[in-house]
Design a protein that fits this description.
Strand content: 15-25%
Number of domains: 2
Number of helices: 10
Order of helices and strands: EEHEHEHEHEHEHEHEHEHEHEE
CATH superfamily of the largest domain: Response regulator
Number of strands: 13
Bound molecules: beta-D-allopyranose
Helix content: 25-40%
CATH class of the largest domain: Alpha Beta
CATH architecture of the largest domain: 3-Layer(aba) Sandwich
Shape: elongated
Radius of gyration: 20 Å
Length: 338
């Protein structure tokens, strides 16, 4: 059985502030225009600064939550700023995210708060925006330091220590395994720094616990791709005991592959994000650990950094954000091997 993908393709760009806030779904344009920005004009007379939140795939619950956090914050601060929310359709649609940055600029954004889909590819567009006087705040996935330095881009980073968080997820999983057990890692997009950091954190935890990492492959953050990767890993490694996934969507894809192979309970899975769709899998033990990186707060902290930067010429400092590890002990689910 292949995984059934329940992910709707919705990507939206909407403006709130002068108008009533609404969820991204309600403003989702037709698929053909999925990534087009709202045509709403900039505030006349520049009454309030406009902040553009540029995210990755709004089909990923992690980012739709992030959008909701930002919208709630704006609704509580209507006198301070306007908010424009942008998201891409596919996780790896880098050129579309570059277009969104350009749209934010042309719509008069005073600041761009961005979760870059790629740590290098977004740098030139962000540098161009900064040269026009637009404040850039980097959230979630850190831009490549060398690429940013070379381009002369200065952007504070607001986000978690992904390596440490992934290490802690890996430790929670390792507590259910025995030394020398075989584990595999399905990482996110390989060009994203946070994906690299999560892979490294998973490796740290597996090494510390004496597990054998037999394969590392990318699922590009996507459920369907991770499902295919996991199915192949399961047939190539009959003794596999664990799959560590760089996000929950991939963990859901991997769990479906484990079920299809009839190995539920024998192959434990870990994810990252703590999205709503992972809860039933945590509850019945198909997934043993994930990480809540509080995406709604990430957006708010990014917006606060942007507002601070708009008010002052002083450089805004980086801000480390918290990650909580989420585990569930299933009532009748998989238990550690005797
Ligand atoms: C990362 C986010 C989330 C998300 C993933 C895929 O940057 O932190 O883990 O699931 O991108 O978009």
């Amino acid at each position: 059985m292949r995984v059934i993908l329940g992910v709707g393709l919705l990507a939206a760009a909407l403006l709130v502030g002068g108008c009533k806030p609404s969820a991204p779904e309600s403003a989702a344009p037709p698929a053909s225009a999925a990534n087009a920005a709202s045509a709403a004009p900039a505030a006349a007379g520049g009454a309030q600064p406009r902040i553009a939140l540029v995210m990755k795939s709004l089909a990923n619950d992690f980012f739709s939550n992030m959008a909701k956090g930002a919208q709630a914050h704006q609704a509580a601060h209507t006198g301070q700023y306007e908010l424009a929310v942008f998201g891409i359709k596919n996780e790896t649609d880098l050129s579309e995210q570059v277009n969104l940055v350009e749209q934010a600029v042309s719509q008069g954004a005073a600041a761009i708060v961005i979760a870059p889909a790629d740590s290098k590819a977004l740098v030139p567009a962000l540098r161009r925006a900064q040269q026009q006087g637009i404040v850039i705040i980097n959230i979630d996935n850190r831009l490549d330091a060398d690429a940013a330095n070379q381009a002369g881009l200065h952007a504070a980073f607001v986000g978690p220590d992904n390596r440490d968080a992934a290490r802690r997820v890996g430790q929670a999983l390792a507590a259910r395994l025995k030394p020398a057990d075989e584990a595999a890692i399905i990482e996110g997009a390989t060009s994203a720094f946070n994906s690299q950091q999560r892979r490294a954190g998973f490796e740290d935890a597996m090494q510390a616990a004496g597990m054998k990492v037999v394969a590392i492959q990318s699922g590009d953050w996507e459920m369907e791709k991770a499902n295919t990767v996991a199915a192949n890993l399961l047939s190539a490694h009959p003794r596999l005991r664990a799959i560590l996934c760089g996000n929950d969507n991939m963990a859901i894809g991997a769990a479906a592959a484990v079920a299809a192979a009839g190995r539920t309970g024998q192959v434990l899975i870990a994810g990252f994000d703590d999205i709503a769709a992972i809860k039933p899998l945590l509850a019945d033990g198909r997934v043993v650990a994930t990480a809540d990186q509080h995406g709604d707060q990430l957006a708010v902290f990014g917006i606060e950094a942007a507002l601070a930067s708009l008010k002052s010429t002083a450089a805004v400092a980086d801000r480390a954000t918290a990650v909580d590890i989420v585990t569930a002990t299933p009532a009748g689910g998989p238990q550690p091997r005797p």
